[in-house]
Amino acid sequence: MLHAGPMATIQDLGRPGLARIGVGASGAADRGSLKLANRLVGNPEDAAAVEITVGDFSASPTGDLLMAVTGAPVPIWVDDRPEGCNAVLRVRAGQTLRVGIASAGVRSYLAVRGGIAVPPVLGSRSTDTMAHLGPAVLEDGVRLPVGAPPTTYPTVDQAVTRGPTDARLRVIMGPRDDWFTAASRRALVTEPWTATAVGDRIGMRLAGPVLERVVSRELSSEGVVRGALQVPPGGHPTLMLADHPVTGGYPVIAVVVDADIDRAANIRPGDTLFFEETRKQVLT
Amino acid sequence: MRFLRCGDVGVLVELAALEDVLSLHADLEARPVRGLVDLVPALETLLVKFDPGVTTPEQVCQDIKARSPERTQRRTGEVLTVPVRYDGEDLAAVSSLLGISVAETVRRHTSQVWTVAFAGFSPGFGYLVGDAGGLEVSRRASPRTRVPAGAVALAGEFTGVYPRESPGGWRIVGHTALKAWDLHRDPPALLTPGTRVCFASVDSVA
Lengths: 284, 206
Prior knowledge:
By secondary structure, chain A is mainly beta. Chain A has 3 helices and 18 strands.
């Protein structure tokens, strides 16, 4: 690997199921794009790949490799030959794969046939940036081991994907929507929100109307899920992403549905987004 | 028992007391519901995470309501002893906040059985609740940027042992040589939900 760009980590589908020891799931911020990159090169969907943030990355293999880049659309070259996203790339030993700046979205995935074979930690090769588990954040010049090729072969050369991301995210209200005023609950799903520059793999702070509470007592810590909109006392929600803490001490007004979280992970600072309520229901 | 939605991947179960949380947690660990992904216990809630491709929140709630776990009877099993050197930087401040002597602070910390309620903050960090209470203190106004692994500390009604060096706002009363987190051990965390602990004062933790 020659150049890591602003932020590059190794990610697979994470380590779910370890809350009892205080470990969160982590894993690819955009799981769908990771899976697609792996399928393109014939890997199992959960193989480890490189998660590239806003592009600007390059690598040169020491052996011939099949690669694929998915997710946020980026210009790609193999030496001086332009290539495309969502396609099987043949990169020979000594050639250089270069990834330019993403034209939209945030996170791209570079999969190699055989997967990135760094040693797993607690069953996963993901870097958890909050818990400091797994491989280190990638730096320029680091060498990455590639695993043995799988027995399955690529079946297509190119995948068709959806175009630029839609900034409308569906939410289910709760679990603590009753801690907020009716006006704030309405504002959440009617007013525009702006992604701020305060954002990483842990979460993304949003700017918009101040969400006011009707319950002022402190919430005792409780479990949170990826996609939760947690509201600290200032009233500006944080959208929890892949490396979110296992528990949180602020009420969660609503949760983005699982199918929309990959898109949420590709919202850029300054982007406008809307929340759309899908189902208002408290089970008893 | 009250069920609250947590998107389409979780149900937050509100329970009356920590004992109920630990009982349901133990029951669901022993007999998982279909599609279960993870369980996150807390003081008054248990978050049940599931795979939305396999089950629905309605189904998960039904499955949980269908069982009635016996409250784990006042556990009489093993109690883990944690040796502590009571030399923490905040020990004097804790004592004056509580309006008691340093010796009495140590006595209250060592004379009760603590139970790990839940994990959080960082891998292996357990929140312990005492069966006799009496050591409730606020967090430090400004957190320390560096708290060493093995620091034994208090915050709110909880006590805890820092598993790794990290920033932290809890008030440090002592240090232990016991490793709360060790990736080369299975399981790596020592203080997992339901574990009972007592602290013992020692002169040295070397």
